[in-house]
Automatic annotation (TrEMBL), chain A:
Pfam families: MnhB (PF04039). It is found in: Cell membrane. This is Na(+)/H(+) antiporter subunit B. Belongs to the CPA3 antiporters (TC 2.A.63) subunit B family. The keyword Cell membrane applies. Its main location: membrane. It comes from Peribacillus psychrosaccharolyticus. Keywords: Cell membrane, Membrane, Transmembrane, Transmembrane helix. Residues 7-131 form the Na+/H+ antiporter MnhB subunit-related protein domain. GO terms for cellular component: plasma membrane. It is a multi-pass membrane protein.
TrEMBL record, chain B:
It is found in: Cell membrane. It is a multi-pass membrane protein. Belongs to the CPA3 antiporters (TC 2.A.63) subunit F family. It comes from Peribacillus psychrosaccharolyticus. The chain crosses the membrane at residues 6-25, 34-53, 59-82. It holds the Pfam family MrpF_PhaF. InterPro entries: MrpF/PhaF-like. The keyword Membrane applies. Keywords: Antiport, Cell membrane, Ion transport, Membrane, Transmembrane, Transmembrane helix, Transport. GO terms for molecular function: sodium:proton antiporter activity. This is Na(+)/H(+) antiporter subunit F1. One of its GO terms (cellular component) is plasma membrane.
Amino acid sequence: MKTNDLILQTVTKVAAFVIILFSLSIFLGGHYSPGGGFVGGLMTSSAIILLLLAYDLKTVAGILPVDYKLFIASGLLLSVLTASGSLLFGVPLMTHAFTYVDLPLLGHISLHTAVLFDLGVYLVVVGVTMTIIQTIGESE
Amino acid sequence: MFSIIIQIALICISLSMLGLVYRLIKGPSTPDRVVALDAIGINLIALIALLSISLDTSAYLEAILLLAIVSFIGTTAFSKFLEKEDIIEHDRNL
């Protein structure tokens, strides 16, 4: 019997974007409110999992043509580079720095190198979760 | 006065969750258990909201939204397993 997933697919088209926006919100707000790279990465991968549930592996691979193993590698590289970049300035490993800048659209905000480290965590979490789910989903 | 109202609401939600746990254990068929689990998730959201009022903090608001999303995805995955025996298909149009 061929089933029809029209309601699930229509809900997914709206909900996936809301989940991705929420994950970006808790990723960027991790310094001042609960959240951070780990929960943000898990929410992003759960949005992709919702797409996988409503559609299939082939369609989602067409929407997001990325290799998630590269996410793990680039996230680890970003974290290592951020941690060891402080050695260039003659300070101990993993020393973070921040500064206040005036950006044209965003106003007076502080830019912190911990965000780059957190971005590495985010990429590793998305990569590991999606690699596990896809590997289990593909096996017959 | 207000904290008493919150505590009464907390007790009512807990009793409602107890009834749902009974349905979860006793439920004759699997769909009964899935619906009970979904409703437990919704009650957990209400519990966290009441707790964040009673503790006078807004730090739990992210947890509420997160639990709603995760509960929806979990119920969807269970429903798809019951319907198709295959949660993530390789090619839908085959």
